[in-house]
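Onboarding guide, step 5: your first structure request.
Type a short instruction followed by the sequence, for example:

Predict the 3D structure of this protein.
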Amino acid sequence: MTHAVRSGVRVFTVSDEETLHAMRPEWDSLLARSASDGPFLTWEWQAAWWRHLRGRARLSLRLVRRGDGTLVGLAPLAAYPADPRRPSPWPALGFLGTGAAGSDYLDLLVRSDAEPEVLDALADALGRERIPVDLGQLRRRPCLSAGLAARLRDRGWRVRHSRSSVCPIADLGGLDWDAYLARLGREHRYAVRRASRALAARFSVAFEAVASEPARRDAMAILASLHERRWRRLAPETAFRTPSLRAFHDEASRRFLERGQLRLFVLRADGRPVAALYGFVHGGRFHFYQSGFDPEYAPWSVGLAAMAASIRAAIQEGARAYDFLHGAERYKFHWAGGLRRPRRIEMYPPGGRGLAAMGVNALVRRARGAVRRALRAAS
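The system replies with structure tokens like these:
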């Protein structure tokens, strides 16, 4: 469906899965020319999420094309129904890839030479629809969605900005392994070296990088098993807890292997898999996604050893940074020297419906905050 024509571009809404799957070449070509380029906005990640994790969402992509048909903008959106489990429970448009997938740095995809015309056209189209828009896990800079929000504010919309989490990051640019270690705190540097020596003294150690499809299948099964063994007693919700999550990770990792961007490692001690780590390299950055280790081997710090080996591998292949993605777990800050602060932008249309949506979301947010404070006080 065509929504609008502005400055020589047209906005189309795509709601059928067939078109989504046919868009792969266009999608990734556009992403490579956009300031928002990142692994969680690739067609491979987003299409796998739609296939396995969309729940009750309805596809609602917005494509912006020039008169000759060239794709210059894409808003990877879905329409989410009312759901008290979502950060904003009122019905709204939001990004694909949200929720249990743990995607970071989501945004609009816009060709760098077409940003003003694309953002204007999207603001015109969404302004006429008057549906609340809730965009989470946005990078602060660059952030094309902030430009869209500013344009909607100019049209009378109410806009709310908030922080969502932190992403610890280790700068690797120009460093070798020894230079990187020298930047770490003394105690952690000592722990890394001690773990490596202790493990090698006790076991025959191998750190294997996946390079084939059969190896990927085996390694993902190992990762899921080790992750569940590590976390099932400590956290009720884990990365591989449901069949749909396992299917999603199977497809996403397979597609990233095809792209040459999967980084999946298994650490073995005397031939036994004792730790595994899963991530991606994109745009010269290593994105650490998930890991697991065998609790029986915790005395030999196999989780720490696997992390150290993956950072060393990232340095050896020339990665500029090792991004731990969202989550303020203490161990990440032992390795990282900086961070990014993703944000959420909520946009509410003028009028009573927008006011009602904003009020309900604010009320739910306050109630959740009260519950969290009560639980902390009771613990």
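Each response can be followed by summary notes, for example: The longest helix spans residues 352-378.
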